[in-house]
Specification:
Blueprint lengths: L2 H24 L3 H5 L4 E11 L5 E10 L4 E8 L9 E10 L6 E10 L6 E4 L5 E9 L5 E10 L4
Antiparallel strand pairs: 1-2, 2-3, 3-6, 4-5, 4-7, 7-8
């Protein structure tokens, strides 16, 4: 095999691998991020908008009936032309029956498509959830979610 053939084959393989990653990212869903058995609950999708009302993404609340866990995850829908990463968070708060009367978890980081999931046991308990998205160079920022207790499992 000639050196040109090897280089061409390597470039072709690299190009094929480079185009496969975005297609995989586009197929990710809140269910696939949270895991098997999780389903989006009623009132479990809230839009994240900036001050001008531009949609930046959505925060999702999911529940797994088998395990009793809730899951919150933030997905970005607005992308820069260069697909730069953004600071994003997802927060899940559980109303407990013992002091301190709440328990919460947050994932915060710089992501390109979505946050890591936040999972807390919440069978029979009320929850709140929220998400934030901010460009790394603070040109835009937004928050969304539900700040009242809901999905109480009753």
């Amino acid at each position: 095999m000639s050196a040109k053939t090897i280089v061409a084959a390597s470039l072709l393989a690299a190009g094929t691998l480079a185009t496969a990653a975005p297609a995989q990212a586009a197929t990710e869903t809140p269910q696939s991020v949270c895991g098997n058995g999780f389903r989006v609950v009623k009132d479990g999708v809230r839009t994240i908008k900036d001050r001008q009302g531009v949609e930046l993404g959505k925060v999702f609340l999911l529940y797994n009936r088998r395990t009793g866990y809730n899951c919150a995850v933030t997905f970005r829908t607005l992308f820069d032309t260069d697909h730069a990463k953004a600071r994003m968070s997802a927060t899940l708060t559980i109303q407990t029956t013992t002091p301190p009367l709440t328990s919460s978890g947050t994932t915060l980081g710089v992501y390109s498509r979505h946050t890591k999931p936040v999972k807390l046991f919440a069978r029979g308990l009320c929850v709140k959830y929220s998400g934030t998205i901010q460009s790394v160079a603070p040109a835009w920022a937004g928050k969304g979610g539900r700040d009242k207790w809901g999905n109480c499992g009753r």
